[in-house]
Design goal:
single chain, alpha/beta, Rossmann fold, 2 domains, 6-stranded mixed β-sheet, 4-stranded antiparallel β-sheet, 8 helices, 15 strands, about 30% helix
Length: about 280
């Protein structure tokens, strides 16, 4: 068992170091740092480059865990709402690095296993480009195949009605996430909200749609963007753990700068010691 764990950790480290090498330029000023076990190695990779490389950079956390990583490493930090402004608008992050719970073949993501999805999405969309880093267990042809549920951040007051609505949308057994073993009661996010974990059938991508399959929820069958749009209409849902739509490179052509949720690339550490890069 310990050998398997060591292989997983070494694969995460390899992916993180490669991602930082490929996507963190010395000219960058603002860098998003996400949450999760793989991001520990992203920070380690940054620190390994030395103060001469990173001393001019400011790092933006997605929650209390990444804040702790940044502080412990002795890196400069500001929150996403503390960035300086240019012509009245907050400066863009040059790049954001974060993990993922599941990544499909179109680079759609499920995030939120660590309950940081809202701030993770704020940081990802504030960046010119977002890079996902994970181990090979997170690769999947379709979301909700390996990671069975979509994390959803909700206002506690609205949780009963949100659960009812999710069941009506075809989620068989959505549940409010427990805070156990570390905390009795519900899992409370950094924003004071609760997390609902909502299982769905594997989510379709655009190429799966046909004249007989529209992805609009019949028999619980949903296409990612259609489901995301419906979820975000439900009163009481604050944010969802689906990262979808378009990436930072595509945003420029669409005239939607700093609205992109998808990564431009995902780095996966493989059991054989290789790093597989999935580019957009």
């Amino acid at each position: 068992m310990s050998l398997a764990v060591d292989l997983i950790e070494s694969s995460k480290k390899l992916a993180a170091y490669r991602a930082v090498e490929d996507h963190l330029l010395p000219s960058y000023k603002f860098v998003g740092i996400g949450s999760g076990s793989t991001v520990v190695y992203v920070v380690e990779a940054i620190v390994s480059k030395g103060p001469a490389f990173y001393s001019g950079m400011t790092f933006v956390p997605t929650g209390s865990q990444s804040k702790g990583l940044i502080k412990t490493a002795g890196l400069s930090m500001c929150y996403v709402d503390e960035r300086p402004t240019v012509n009245g608008s907050p400066v863009a992050l040059d790049v954001a690095f974060d993990g993922a719970d599941e990544v499909d073949e179109d680079l759609n993501l499920i995030k939120g296993g660590g309950a940081c999805l809202f701030q993770e999405k704020l940081v990802a969309t504030a960046a010119n480009k977002f890079i996902a880093v994970a181990d090979s267990r997170k690769q999947s042809p379709r979301l909700c195949t390996k990671w069975k549920t979509i994390p959803i951040e909700v206002l506690p007051l609205a949780a009963p009605d949100v659960l009812r609505r999710l069941r009506a949308m075809g989620s068989p057994s959505p549940t409010v996430r427990s805070g156990l073993p570390s905390k009795a009661g519900e899992c409370v996010t950094d924003n004071g909200m609760w997390i609902i974990d909502a299982p769905f059938s594997p989510l379709l991508i655009r190429k799966d749609l046909s004249s007989t399959e529209d992805g609009c929820g019949r028999n619980g069958s949903w296409e990612i963007q259609t489901l995301a749009d419906e979820l975000l209409k439900v009163p009481g849902i604050i944010e969802i753990g689906l990262f979808y739509g378009f990436n930072g490179n595509q945003a420029l052509g669409l005239g939607k700068e700093l609205q992109a949720q998808k990564p431009v690339a995902a780095y996966f550490g493989m059991p054989d010691g290789q790093v597989q890069v999935q580019n957009a």
